[in-house]
Write a structure and sequence with these properties.
Elements: H1 9-27, E1 41-44, E2 49-59, H2 71-89, E3 92-102, H3 108-125, E4 128-136, E5 142-152, E6 167-170, H4 176-185, H5 195-205, H6 211-218, E7 223-228, H7 233-244, E8 247-251, H8 259-268, H9 272-278, E9 285-289, H10 294-305, E10 311-316, E11 322-326, E12 329-331
Parallel strand pairs: 3-4, 8-11
Antiparallel strand pairs: 1-2, 2-5, 3-5, 6-9, 6-10, 7-9, 8-10, 11-12
Helix pairs in contact: 2-3, 2-6, 4-5, 5-8
This protein binds adenosine-5'-diphosphate and magnesium ion.
The site of magnesium ion has 6 residues, from helix 2 and strand 7.
Length: 344
């Protein structure tokens, strides 16, 4: 109709768009295959073993700033973000494919450094590069990585298994990566001279995929749903709510925040709750646990990893309701998590 504005992807948002096209594809899947909607696709393989597949796209100006990030860190991070999705299923990464579109003027030494960063993490995690594609780009650097991994089928954790009453927990502090990004965007890389600045920036550039934690947690029957924190818990909890048909209460005073982030937030007047709940790219794990087993699990986790397993909330039966509380009072969080088409 004339004058009627056509629906744009920015109106739907990233997740509205995925929901719109994926329905049709999900209907056709054979039994036992998990397709669109979790951190990895899960495909039946050898006996109890399942094949895990995940892919991520990184674009200059959207996911990184080529002029700021070192080639070595970018090589490391391109692989790390994919390994984090394997960790979220409780799997072990094995093989990778790397496709790059490169502006013609890119220096070969820059690419050598990119592969150095990649190899550092690949060697440590046992991932072999098996293929990919290389082309020229007329519009900046574009990187696509796909990783295949394996998992014991009886131990895989999905986003869809949360139940009302479950305790929601995370495997690390929240907001460090967003803090690091804010320092970088403020041109505060000189903050690297201060230990807290250096720490936050390294948390942004060199996220640590929680592979060991993922495998350990996947082996615990009391862990119900699990995913990795890539867009910030505000956005990621909504994915668990959609897949599990539930709601969540988050207790803001329980969000684990590093001393470094507290220090920088004080200096630059950041809203700590917003940074911790809506900041992306922490790449730790977000899980839900049967409530009566949570204390025991947190103790086991502490014995194994030497750090706590902070509880940050609880699953409710209020479908689609993500509610925040501060010291027992419900509050509205100022900002929601990252959506590619809803943020500039
Ligand atoms: P993650 O952050 O763990 O990579 P997302 O939450 O971004 O996952 O994506 C949700 C789901 O949508 C995933 O299963 C992902 O594979 C799928 N997905 C995203 N974009 C596309 C696409 N263009 N085509 C098919 N599946 C997609
Ligand atoms: Mg993920």
């Amino acid at each position: 109709m004339k004058n009627q504005k056509k629906l744009r992807i920015e109106d739907l948002g990233e997740f509205g768009f995925i929901a719109r096209f994926s329905r049709d594809f999900l209907k056709r899947l054979p039994a036992g295959v998990t397709g669109i909607g979790d951190d990895c696709a899960v495909i039946p393989w050898k006996g109890r073993k399942k094949l895990l597949v995940t892919t991520d796209l990184l674009i200059d100006g959207v996911h990184f700033l080529k002029e700021r990030i070192s080639a070595r860190d970018l090589g490391y991070k391109s692989l790390a973000v994919n390994l984090s999705d394997i960790a979220a299923m409780g799997g072990s990464p094995r093989w990778a494919f790397l496709s790059i579109a490169i502006p013609a003027e890119t220096e070969v030494s820059w690419l050598d450094e990119f592969f150095r960063g990649w190899r550092q993490l690949a060697a440590r995690t046992g991932v072999e590069l098996l293929g990919g594609d290389t082309t020229k780009s007329r519009a900046g650097l574009v990187i696509n990585v796909a990783v295949l991994g394996e998992a014991d089928g009886t131990h895989i954790k999905y986003r869809s298994s949360a139940r009302p009453g479950d305790i929601v927990a995370v495997t690390d502090n929240l907001g460090d990566s967003e803090g690091g990004l804010r320092l970088i965007l403020r041109g505060e890389e000189k903050s690297r001279t201060k230990p807290e600045g250096k720490y936050l920036i390294s948390r942004h550039y060199r996220p640590h995929p929680h592979l060991e934690e993922g495998r350990f947690l996947a082996g615990q029957p009391e862990v119900r749903a699990m995913m990795d924190v890539s867009d910030g818990i505000d956005s990621d909890l909504r994915r668990i709510m959609e897949r599990s048909g539930c709601g969540v209460m988050v207790f803001l005073e329980q969000l684990p925040i590093s001393p470094a982030l507290k220090k920088c937030a004080g200096r630059f007047n950041w809203n700590l709750e917003e940074v911790a709940a809506a900041g992306g790219e922490d790449y730790c794990l977000l899980l839900t646990v049967a409530p009566e087993k949570f204390t025991g699990l947190a103790e086991k986790f502490f014995r194994r990893f030497g750090r706590p397993l902070p509880a940050i909330g609880q699953i409710t039966d209020e479908k689609g309701q993500l509610r925040y509380f501060r010291n027992g009072h419900q509050v509205v969080l100022e900002k929601s998590g990252y959506d590619h088409f809803k943020h500039g």
